[in-house]
């Protein structure tokens, strides 16, 4: 990026002028990460002062058994396949509790689309995890999993989300 464009972008950022799509592309293509980071820091500081949020997030995958066969996924296993696993809820709680000493603030749960687990397994797991870790935010499930829950439960997505939220879900 030439010096003139850099200067123009700096002026816009410092004047809080909305950037154009072309400006965004130029910033994206910039190889000067120190300069770009400096601009981002100016904007963040202007908006939030010295307040910074830090999240200690850990992942918990209660099952890797999945029927989806997504081409990009190296995580999933077919039922009965070597390395396929499904945790009992008590085991998941034990593993999550072991992470608590790491100043855990968020537990992120993503699973495979298990063909044999009952719908109730999922809200019960959230409920038990929330009981064990009341101060930890539960971020769980993907849109694909919510659709799978519709299929196995006969409930609507709205009903599923209501139950999951009641059980302790805080974000997807």
Overview of the structural elements:
The chain is built from 7 helices and 4 strands. It has a 4-stranded parallel sheet with strand order 1-2-3-4. The protein has 2 domains: 3-48; 57-171, Alpha-Beta Barrel (TIM Barrel). Helix 4 (89-99) links the parallel strand 1 (57-60) and strand 2 (106-109). The mean pLDDT is 95. It has 172 residues and is an alpha/beta fold.
Summarize, please.
The chain has 172 residues and is α/β, with parallel strands linked by helices. It contains 7 helices and 4 strands. It is elongated.
Low-confidence stretches: none
- Helix fraction by DSSP (H/I, runs of at least 4): 40-55%
Which shape, going by the Cα principal axes? elongated
Secondary-structure element series: HHHEHEHEHHE
The whole-number mean of residue pLDDT values reads 95
Reported for the largest beta sheet, the result is: 4 strands, parallel
Radius of gyration: 22 Å
Percent range for β-strand residues: 5-15%
| Total strands | 4
Q: Write out the CATH superfamily name of the largest domain.
A: Aldolase class I
Number of helices: 7
Distance between the termini: 38 Å
InterPro entries: Aldolase_TIM (IPR013785), F420 (IPR034405), rSAM (IPR007197), rSAM_sf (IPR058240)
Cofactor: [4Fe-4S] cluster
GO molecular function, one term: 4 iron, 4 sulfur cluster binding
Organism: Streptomyces sporangiiformans
Task: Annotate the secondary structure layout.
Elements: H1 3-14, H2 21-29, H3 33-48, E1 57-60, H4 89-99, E2 106-109, H5 121-132, E3 137-140, H6 143-153, H7 157-167, E4 169-171
Parallel strand pairs: 1-2, 2-3, 3-4
InterPro entries: Aldolase_TIM, F420, rSAM, rSAM_sf
Cofactor: [4Fe-4S] cluster
Protein name: Aminofutalosine synthase MqnE
